[in-house]
């Protein structure tokens, strides 16, 4: 079960080895920021997926999680976060947080993260994970990704993992001048 993964040292060591191998492979890709890779090395991806898919978690492909969502392919996550050029202290809005893995990486990088997920059931599952890993700079809620989190803005960066046919004006209004949106 998910709770067991938080306290099993053998399991943690095996996954840490897999995670280190993945990061070593990514470190050869010039455009990936070392800060992103360091955060990915520190965040245990295996905590963000159900038992049925945990064995595949460090393969570089999308991993099914709860509510028909996925953890994005790890190299894609690294690419997106490198493109955002996050600095410690940046205020970041993440839309469609899904598994919460990318959210935790952003928080590990020192960003003040505001993450929105549309599925309230998924919010309960991921909320448990966030409580267990205790990242104080992480704010997470169920909400409308088209509206964003206006009371928390403006944001230095916005990462929208949901597909939009066009960027909702409400999101652009929450982006600081010179901010980044991916």
Verbal overview:
The protein has 182 residues and is α/β, with parallel strands linked by helices. It has helices spanning 2-5, 9-26, 34-42, 74-84, 101-108, 120-133, 169-173; strands at 63-64, 70-71, 91-95, 112-117, 138-142, 155-160, 175-181. It has a five-stranded parallel beta sheet with strand order 5-4-3-6-7. The chain has a two-stranded antiparallel ribbon with strand order 1-2.
Low-confidence stretches: none
Portion in strands = 15-25%
> What's the order of the H and E elements?
HHHEEHEHEHEEHE
- Work out the helicity level: 25-40%
What is the overall silhouette? globular
Number of strands: 7
Distance separating the two termini: 34 Å
Largest sheet: 5 strands, parallel
| Class derived from helix and strand content | alpha/beta
Q: How would you classify the quaternary structure?
A: single chain
* Sheet with most strands: strand arrangement: 5-4-3-6-7
Average pLDDT metric: 91
In DSSP terms, counting alpha (H) and pi (I) runs of 4 or more, how many helices? 7
Write down the Rg: 16 Å
Descriptive labels:
about 180 residues; alpha/beta; two-stranded antiparallel sheet; 7 strands; about 40% helix
Sum this structure up briefly.
The chain is α/β, with parallel strands linked by helices. It has helices spanning 2-5, 9-26, 34-42, 74-84, 101-108, 120-133, 169-173, and strands spanning 63-64, 70-71, 91-95, 112-117, 138-142, 155-160, 175-181.
